[in-house]
Amino acid sequence: MAEAANKPKMVDLFVPRGSSVDEPNVLISVNGKNWVLPKGKTSMVPDFVKYEYERAQRAKEALDVRA
């Protein structure tokens, strides 16, 4: 029973396709665990992986605005 309480909620994460010269996958690392997600597809990931992906996208957009 305690094991089920520790499992993270799984959610859908769509990673848009980049340009033709970009890598075909995106790597997301959280606390030493890695997820390699294909671009242009939806993947089932733990909710904290989706949060980290979205946080990184917001940071990238903020940097692009300042640059």
Compile the SSE list and pairings.
Elements: H1 2-6, E1 10-15, E2 25-30, E3 33-38, E4 41-46, H2 47-66
Antiparallel strand pairs: 1-4, 2-3
Could you provide a short overview of the structure?
Helices cover 37% and strands 36% of the residues.
Q: Sheet bearing the most strands, described?
A: 2 strands, antiparallel
Approximate shape: globular
Strand content: 35-45%
Q: Give the total of beta strands.
A: 4
Q: Order of SSEs, N→C?
A: HEEEEH
Radius of gyration: 14 Å
Instruction: Give the spatial strand order of the biggest sheet.
Output: 1-4
Mean of all residue-level pLDDT scores:
90
Structural class by secondary-structure content: alpha+beta
Instruction: Give the distance, in angstroms, between the N- and C-terminal Cα atoms.
Output: 50 Å
Can you put this structure into words, describing what you see?
- The chain is of the alpha+beta class and 67 residues long.
- 37% of the residues lie in helices and 36% in strands.
- The protein is built from two helices and four strands, in the order αββββα.
- The strands form two sheets. A two-stranded antiparallel ribbon has the order 1-4.
- Strand 2 (25-30) and strand 3 (33-38) form a beta hairpin.
- The longest helix is centred in the C-terminal third of the chain and has 20 residues, at 47-66.
- The radius of gyration is 14 Å and the shape is globular.
